[in-house]
Write a structure and sequence with these properties.
It is a single chain. 25% of the residues lie in helices and 10% in strands. It has two helices and two strands. The chain has a two-stranded parallel sheet. Helix 2 links the parallel strand 1 and strand 2. The longest helix is centred in the middle third of the chain and has 10 residues. The radius of gyration is 15 Å and the shape is elongated.
Length: 77
C-alpha cells in the first residue's frame, strides 16, 4: 500500500515508485533443504534480482509506477 500511495503522490512530478520483493535467494540461509521445496527447485540468484531492479531504470518502463514485482520463482502462486 505504501508503494502505491507514494507512486500516486509523485506521479504528477514524473517520478515513478516501484518495489521489488525477492523471495529466497542464493545468499539466504537454507534451513534444512528449504530451497528444494521451492517451485523452481532453486533460490533466485543475485543477478536475477538485480536485473529486475535495473528494469525499472530503462526509459521504456517510464510509465510503470506503483507496482510490486515478486522475484520468488512461483513461490507465492
Amino acid at each position: 500500500g505504501y508503494t502505491r500511495a507514494i507512486a500516486h503522490e509523485l506521479a504528477p512530478k514524473g517520478v515513478t515508485v516501484n518495489m521489488v520483493s525477492p523471495g529466497q535467494t542464493e545468499t539466504s540461509v537454507d534451513l534444512e533443504g528449504e530451497h528444494k521445496k521451492l517451485p523452481m527447485g532453486r533460490p533466485a540468484t543475485i543477478d536475477e534480482i538485480a536485473l529486475s531492479v535495473v528494469h525499472f531504470f530503462r526509459p521504456e518502463t517510464a510509465y510503470i509506477t506503483g507496482q510490486n514485482i515478486e522475484i520468488a520463482g512461483a513461490y507465492a502462486l
